[in-house]
Amino acid sequence: MDIKNKTALVTGAGSGIGYQIAKLLKEQGNNVIIAGRNAEKITKAAEELSVTALVCDLTKPADIEALVSRVKTEFPELSILVNNAGVAHLYKLGEGADAFTKATAEFQVNYFGPVLLTEKLLPILKQQPEAAVINITSNVTFHPLVVLPTYSDTKAALHSHTVALRHTLAKDTAVKVYEVMPSLVNTEATKDMGGESGMHPGEVAQATLAGIKAGQYEIYVGDTGSQRAAYLANPENAVASFNNRF
Q1: Which residues carry out catalysis?
Q2: Which InterPro entries is this protein grouped with (predicted)?
Q3: Is the CB of residue 35 less than 8 Å from the CB of residue 13?
Q4: Which of 84, 98, 145, 165 sits between 20 and 30 A of 32, alpha carbons compared?
């Protein structure tokens, strides 16, 4: 699938990976809509990119309903959905960690939000000659990072959902479902865990579109491919090696 001259919605596009994906999509001739919960941030990004901004808090079903209503009215040709928005809490499990509260917040944005948004937009996507759902997960989908324990849970859950959705929609629709799994990326969210040594988010954007064009439903970016191979060869050693810095 070659993503050009289409209408695309990218969530969490005020900065980082989402911003770079929106930028690249715009450069390739697509009509781009970006969504985020911080009105000032998402509006500023939209002005920089010359795209449309929609304010939406994915933790609020009413916001998702309002976004879907606007898309139906203003962008009925929507054919690309990029579920990128995410939050992460840097901590370790144990007594006093308040993992339940942190996990609840992460699952609302990282899992329940994209699940609901995708389902609500499917009727529009299914009307197009070709369409795609692109879920941005992580290298932690197949082994957890101990300092991002419940964030890792959310990405594992979204990975499983993505696989199920892909196989379900392939039976009788033209909607293709892709998953992008980057390793460490240098963004605002990764500053406290050595993100400055990670790849530029623009690399993730480039790899995403290249992978989709090549027909890769699971797109490994950075070190993720080698990490997954190591995990499949020896899960216990791979998890230990992955977490040896922490």
Answers
A1: 151
A2: NAD(P)-bd_dom_sf, SDR_fam
A3: yes
A4: 165
User: What pLDDT does residue 189 have?
Assistant: 67
Kindly report whether the global pTM for this prediction surpasses the value 0.90: yes
Q: Which residue has the tokens 């964030």?
A: 151
Q: Where are the domains of the chain?
A: 7-242
Nearest Cα to 89, choosing from 12, 193, 204, 160?
193
**Architecture of 7-242 per CATH?**
3-Layer(aba) Sandwich (3.40)
Give the Cα separation of 135 and 66 in Å (integer): 21
- CB atoms under 10 Å from CB of 93, counted, come to 12
Residues of the chain with pLDDT under 50: none
Find, among 222, 224, 130, the residue nearest to 177 by Cα.
Answer: 130
Q: What residue spans of the chain are helical by DSSP H?
A: 16-27, 39-49, 61-74, 99-107, 113-125, 149-170, 201-213, 224-233, 235-242
Residues 6+ apart with CB under 8 A from 201: 16, 17, 19, 20, 185, 186, 187
| Radius of gyration of the chain measured on its C-alpha atoms | 17
